[in-house]
Amino acid sequence: MQETFLVRLPKGDDLLEAITRVFQEKGMRKAAFQVIGAVDRAVLAFYDTVERQYKSRDFPEPLEIVACLGNVSEKDGEIFVHAHATLAGEDFRCVGGHLMPGTPIFAAELYAAPVPGEVPVRRFDEPTGLALWSWD
Ligand code: ZN
Question: Ligand 1 centre from 11 Cα, in Å?
Answer without folding.
Answer: 24
